[in-house]
Amino acid sequence: MKLEVAGMSFGYTSDDVLSDVTFSAEQGDVVSIIGPNGVGKTTLLKCINRIHQPKGGVVMVDGEDILGMNPNDVAKTVEYVPQRAHVSGSTVFESVLLGRKPHMGVDVSERDLRLTGRIIEIMGLTDSSRKLVNEISGGEYQLVQIARALAQQPKVLIMDEPTSNLDLSNQGRVMKAVSGIVRDNGMCAVMVNHDINLALRYSNRFIMMSGGRIFAAGGKEIITPENIRAVYEIDADVCEFNGKSIVIPK
């Protein structure tokens, strides 16, 4: 499985928000897009998922052009988890089961039900599965959104700040679950992540953005004091602790 984004540009007006964005991700990759507010991170996600139509460039998954697919094939290939979404009146189980819709026939299959139950269990939502989603907390609803996306079994999972409404324990649980499911199911994940240290713990690839362009892309070797200063305009140390890199602002 391979995601390829090449030469992407996008603008709401005559000015480009994204310019010549090019990167790739392989099967099993968890890619974190990092950078300050307003540099085009969320816009990039929406262009990959065809919510926005790029002005130029291509988005390919396994050699197929996402921009030329019909909506159902896009749903089977790429799934987007927004930072905020409309809360419906369905139960948690029904909401997660909805992720199976692109794969369903006339009726819901036993496989659909089993997979939905397993994802709900993995995300720690079993006790809430019969509750209405408008009765649960914002953090729990964020878990439901991610669970629904995982139930869809896309090739590419795209998430906009997936842990922004979660406490510390749930942040780690979600990132660990996403990493495991991506690895075990031959997918890749691309997410906006404002917490560099959370990204360093659970991601293996990084895209640093500045001014609508990719400033640097690669493994954790690109997370350096020099690059952090250039992108965020702050001074920071990058240290090693128990085999993990940690960014400490000065």
Q: Which features does this protein show?
A:
250 residues, alpha/beta, 32% helix, four-stranded antiparallel sheet, six-stranded mixed sheet, Rossmann fold, globular, single chain
Structural description of this entry:
With 250 residues, the chain is of the alpha/beta class. It has one domain: Rossmann fold, CATH 3.40.50. Helices cover 32% and strands 28% of the residues. The protein is built from 8 helices and 12 strands. The strands form 3 sheets. The protein has a 6-stranded mixed β-sheet, sandwiched between helices. Strands 2-1-4-5 form a 4-stranded antiparallel β-sheet, with helices on one face. A hairpin with a 2-residue loop joins β9 and β10. α4 packs across α5. The longest helix has 17 residues. The termini are far apart.
